[in-house]
């Protein structure tokens, strides 16, 4: 069920009851896993872990406004005094999508 303070929100709750008792996982390792997983979610911004109705962990993701970072330009085409925008082997290149074709 939902907590009383959650009734006015459109939250999704997952309740995972167990028929048989099992040892609680290490909360630090579990928290590290959840934090890493939260990085790759678009809509999920908060994870709360309760054990026997007691809040054990609350992880919140803050989404900041993104902005473009301009790379410094070289002073001339024959000097390499700007930012390195590709690996020496040419395997990786930084740039705008249209610059990479």
Please describe the structure with a list of short key phrases separated by commas or semicolons.
101 residues, alpha+beta, two-stranded antiparallel sheet
Layout of helices and strands:
Blueprint: H1 27-39, E1 46-51, E2 54-60
Antiparallel strand pairs: 1-2
Describe the structure.
With 101 residues, the chain is α+β, with helices and mostly antiparallel strands. Helices cover 13% and strands 13% of the residues. A hairpin with a 2-residue loop joins strand 1 and strand 2 (54-60).
Using the alpha-carbon principal axes, give the shape.
elongated
Main pleated-sheet profile: 2 strands, antiparallel
Euclidean distance between termini CA atoms: 53 Å
Poorly predicted regions: none
Instruction: Give me the number of helical elements.
Output: 1
Number of E strands: 2
What is the beta-strand fraction? 5-15%
Q: Roughly what percent helix?
A: 10-25%
Write down the secondary-structure element order: HEE
How much is the average pLDDT?
77
Main sheet strand line-up:
1-2
Radius of gyration: 23 Å
- What class, by secondary structure content? alpha+beta
Give a summary of the structure in a few sentences:
This protein is an alpha+beta fold and 101 residues long.
């Amino acid at each position: 069920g939902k907590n009383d303070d959650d009734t006015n929100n459109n939250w999704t709750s997952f309740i995972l009851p167990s028929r048989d008792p099992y040892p609680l996982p290490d909360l630090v390792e579990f928290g590290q896993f959840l934090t890493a997983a939260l990085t790759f979610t678009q809509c999920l911004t908060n994870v709360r872990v309760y054990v026997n109705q007691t809040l054990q962990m609350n992880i919140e993701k803050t989404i900041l406004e993104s902005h473009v970072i301009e790379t410094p330009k070289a002073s001339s085409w024959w000097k390499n005094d700007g930012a390195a925008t590709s690996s020496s082997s040419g395997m990786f290149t930084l740039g705008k999508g249209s610059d990479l074709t």
